[in-house]
Structures are given as C-alpha cells and as structure tokens.
Amino acid sequence: MTQTQVLTPASLEELVAALAQATPQTRLLAGGTDLVRELRRPVREPDLLVDLTGLAALSEVRLEEGMLHIGALATFTELQWHPLVREHALCLSLAAAQVGSTQIRNAGTIGGNAANASACADGVTALTALGAVVITVDGAGERRTQSLDDVVLGPGRTSLRYDEAILEFAFPPLDAGHRSAFAKIGSRTAVSVARLSVALVVRFDADAGVLSEARVALGAVGERAFRASELEAKLVGRAADDETARLFADGCVAAVEASIPGRYSLPYKRHAAVGLAYDAWNMLALSAPSEPAWT
Amino acid sequence: MQLVLTVNGTTYEVEARPTARLLDVLRDQLGLTGTKEGCAEGECGACTVIVDGRAVDSCMMLAVQARGKEILTVEGLAQDGELDVLQQKFVEYGAVQCGYCTPGMLMSAKALLMGNPVPSEQDIRVALAGNLCRCTGYTAIVAAVKAASGQDTRPLMEMPVEPGELAAEAVTDPDTLAAACGIVEAETGQPPGGPCSSGGSSEMLGFHSAPEGGE
Ligand SMILES: Cc1cc2nc3c(=O)[nH]c(=O)nc-3n(C[C@H](O)[C@H](O)[C@H](O)COP(=O)(O)OP(=O)(O)OC[C@H]3O[C@@H](n4cnc5c(N)ncnc54)[C@H](O)[C@@H]3O)c2cc1C
Ligand code: FES
Ligand code: FES
C-alpha cells in the first residue's frame, strides 16, 4: 500500500497546484473535527491529504464591496469573537459560540462545517439565514460562486468536486437596523449536536413600528438547513409585539412539522420547539440594545 | 514521513504515519503519556493539549498539522521540579480522584488562564465544558482553577481547614489514606469486616470471587 501524501499549501497558487493533483481518493483537511475520526477507519486510505490549515489568508473576515466575506478556515472561536461578525452577522457569532466545546471551537472551521454537510451543522443554519454564497476554487484555478443551497445538498452530500475547495462565504452584512439571533436545542448544553436550531434575522422599521424584513432558517430537522419562507412572509409588516412572538413560535413548529411529518407531533417536542422559538425571539430584543422601540 | 515537532520547548524529529494523530505521536513516539486517550471522538477532553496558545483535542488533529507550532502538554507544566500553580491547587482542593481527566483539565484550564488570568466561574465552566470527569463532580476542579487565579473560592467551596492542609495530611498519613480508600478500617487498621466484605482488600477493589455454588 502506498502511503498517503500530505500537501500543506501556504498560498492560493500552492492550493490550486495541490488540487490539480487530487483524485477521488483525495481528502481536504481543515480543523479535523469531523475528518480525523473518519480517517481512523477509512473505507480507503486517501492517496493525498491537502491540509488547508497553512492557508492563513483563508481564515480572514473582511468587508469588501458591500459584502462580508468569511474565510473558510475561520474557526468557530474566531467567528464567535470577531468584531465584524458580531456587528454584521450576530447570528453566526452566536451559532459559533454554541458549537461543541472550547476545544472543538478552537479547531473546527466554518468551511469544514459546510463541506461536511451534516443536517445539524450550526454554522450552515446561520449562513442560510444570512443568505450566503459559497466561493470555491478548483484544480484548474477556476473560481465559482454558488448559493449555499446549491452546495450543501443533504446529509453528507455536497456538490463539491474532489478537486474543489471552499475559499470563503459572502453575504450582505447586517446593519444597525437589523437584529439577529441563534438558538438550538441539544441533549445537553455542552458538546452536543443540535436536535433543532433556528437562526433569525429581522429588520425593524422604527418609524412605521413594524418588521420590514424577516429571515428564518431552521436546522437539524430536515435533510439540511432551510428557510421557512411562509413564516417569513407572515412576519413582515407586523409589530414586534407578543402576538408576533406567538405567531413566530407557532410558525416555527408548523415549519418543523412540515419538514418531518409526524416526528414533531409529540407534545414534548412541540413544547421544546416553542421554547426554542421564544428563546431566539427574546434574543432579538437584546441583540441591538442601542436601538429603542422593541417591545 | 519525517516530522519536526516542538513540544514543551523541545524540538523532536520523529518518523510517523502521515495520518497519525497528534495524540498518537505524543504518546507512542515521544513517550509523553501524560496526555490521555478517552473517547477518541472529541467528546471527553482527556487528550487536550495546547497548540499555539489554544486548547485542542489531540485526538482530532493530525500530527502533520502541528508542525511549526508550539505544543504544550501536561509534562510541560511543572518547571524546575516545581508544580505549576494549577497543579498545586488541584492537589490542595482535592480536584483529582482517579486522575484520568486531570491532564486534560489542567491543559484546558491553563489555556484559559493564559488568555484570561482572572476568569469568572462561568468562564471556567465554559472553558472546561469539553472535559468530562466521572469522579469529582467538577466543583473542586472549578474551585482549584479559581484559586490558581488568585481568587476567593467561596462560596463554591467552604474549606474546613486551610486548603493544602487536607492534602498534606492525606499524603503524609498512610493510615488515613488507606482508610479513605476503604482498604483498612481507620480504628483497627484491619481490612473492614461486615457481611459484604469478608474477603479483604482485593474484594474492596472490585475483584470478586466466584459466587458460592459456582463451578
Ligand atoms: C465533540 C464534537 C462536537 C461537535 N459539535 C458540533 C456542534 O455543536 N455544531 C456543529 O455544527 N458541529 C459540531 N461538530 C462537528 C464539527 O466540529 C464541525 O462540523 C466543524 O465545522 C468541522 O470543521 P473542520 O474544520 O473540523 O472540518 P474537517 O474535519 O477538517 O473536514 C470536514 C469535511 O469537510 C471537508 N472540508 C474541510 N474544509 C474544506 C474546504 N475549505 N473546502 C472543501 N472541503 C472542506 C473535509 O474534506 C471533510 O470532508 C462537533 C464535532 C465534535 C467532534
Ligand atoms: S480522547 Fe480526545 S476528546 Fe476524548
Ligand atoms: S478524577 Fe476521575 S475522571 Fe476526573
């Protein structure tokens, strides 16, 4: 058996050169929090491992031409604390803060989260609410920009080719008029994957006293994170009051039930989903403390 | 493949499989067996080491990924034969029972204090959330980390005597230790009697003989 070769590109050119050598047996490696377990009992020993962690530039977060760019190699710890993420993508910072444990957050990357395509990937739920696109490069040096939905297809399934790496995610930054939140239910607080997660982005028009925009992404229940568009449409134009909060919670439950018919009909699960929705909703009030008029 | 790793300030050259985990190389090749393997899936934290100032699970990282980085393991905590203050406080506060989780706990706590020298109790609990302990119930561990950062540990732990006295007594008095472990009775110094324990110390440690009437 030939030994696995390891390449650790340090620049984009080196990455493209490494990807050019890739075969279907090649694996890309980032934080290793999903892949290393798999490598211990591989179906087939990889011929080539491309270790992406040498690409310091790919962990950058930056605002450029009206878009917030999140490098694929940014770790959850970095996303949790990054000032641009907290200001312009709070739900992503909150999602990152709730991933696994300190050790997992220090190693796990947002690119690995999307490429691994688990239905309970918290970063993906947040990126879905943020309307992110995925920017990739392949072994021919060709860059592609696709919507997240076109890349993350279902549990463990992506459209990524074996010689294609995620470089970054990009989305319009949330501004001061937006509020956003992320909440999840797991079996316990720490080191537990989500059973249900919700990422929420709203814009509150203080003059009119109503919500002028609403985006709701649900994770861990269906095949992959999805937007609850019916619910979103219902929220727009409503006041930010208790009645809307109730409508939001009921709408989340309805969307969850529609995605996995039967499973959420159990009363305790319903209660849990309602509680989660209220947690996320109540977080909105805290998410822009300088802005008044949120009741 | 040939790897050059810097562990606890010392540079090592080792020959390792390309897919070897950092944990494997530390334990099997460098003989640094202080770092433990528990779950091998990132859940328990027994394998925690510090890489470039951050706590990571060494069972989730390949050794090749640690090239050119500063790796700190539990063996690197004590300096010149003196325990690190964290280790000292773990002893004083009785934060070690079976000890299997201890190296990982120490490394998570060390990484925390490197970045946040005066952590709140909540900070400590978050930093240690990826480290499981099946013995202590965590309170003594959290108190030890607080104490190591020079903070008052009350009301988390009300010590009946000065911390340290307990530990000093326990280690200097073998009878107390033996009694505490249930191997002998404090008063008589003999293996404890009674209906459930007629067989002496080996039975106390869980090696039960075959039930009567068997074979
Ligand atoms: C104990 C534990 C708890 C966890 N808790 C959570 C949790 O709460 N929420 C959550 O969402 N996840 C959780 N995870 C899963 C995991 O940490 C995340 O999915 C993480 O984001 C994976 O990133 P990574 O960098 O470690 O990926 P790796 O393990 O390095 O790679 C994962 C996959 O992605 C591919 N890949 C990585 N980077 C790229 C790239 N840039 N381009 C193309 N392909 C790439 C790899 O080839 C591999 O197939 C947990 C894992 C563990 C072990
Ligand atoms: S052995 Fe690494 S986390 Fe359990
Ligand atoms: S002391 Fe035994 S596991 Fe923590």
In short:
By secondary structure, chain A is of the alpha+beta class. Chain A is 36% helix and 25% strand.
| Secondary structure category of chain B | alpha+beta
- Could you say what the CATH topology of the largest domain in chain A is called? Uridine Diphospho-n-acetylenolpyruvylglucosamine Reductase, domain 3
Any guess at the CATH architecture of the largest domain in chain A? 2-Layer Sandwich
Give the CATH superfamily of the largest domain in chain B: [2Fe-2S]-binding domain
Q: Let me know the number of strands of chain B.
A: 5
The CATH first-level class of the largest domain in chain B comes to Mainly Alpha
Q: Which ions and ligands are bound to the chains?
A: flavin-adenine dinucleotide, FE2/S2 (inorganic) cluster
Anisotropy-based shape of chain A: globular
Oligomer: heterodimer
Largest sheet features of chain B: 5 strands, mixed
- Measured on Cα atoms, how large is the radius of gyration of chain B? 20 Å
Distance between the termini of chain A: 66 Å
Which parts of chain A are unreliable, with pLDDT below 50 for 5 consecutive residues or more? none
Averaged pLDDT of chain B, please?
83
Topology (elements, then pairings):
The complex is a heterodimer of chains A (295) and B (215).
Chain A: E1 5-7, H1 12-20, E2 27-29, H2 35-40, E3 48-51, E4 61-64, E5 67-71, H3 76-81, H4 83-88, H5 90-97, H6 102-107, H7 110-116, H8 122-129, E6 133-138, E7 143-147, H9 148-151, E8 152-154, E9 157-158, E10 164-171, E11 178-185, E12 196-205, E13 210-219, E14 226-227, H10 229-235, H11 242-259, H12 267-287
Parallel strand pairs in A: 1-3, 2-3
Antiparallel strand pairs in A: 4-5, 5-10, 6-7, 6-10, 8-9, 11-12, 12-13, 13-14
Helix pairs in contact in A: 5-8, 10-11, 11-12
Chain B: E1 2-7, E2 10-15, H1 22-29, E3 48-51, E4 54-57, E5 70-72, H2 85-92, H3 102-115, H4 121-127, H5 139-148, H6 165-172, H7 174-180, H8 201-204
Parallel strand pairs in B: 1-5
Antiparallel strand pairs in B: 1-2, 3-4, 3-5
Helix pairs in contact in B: 2-5
Bound molecules: flavin-adenine dinucleotide and FE2/S2 (inorganic) cluster (2 copies).
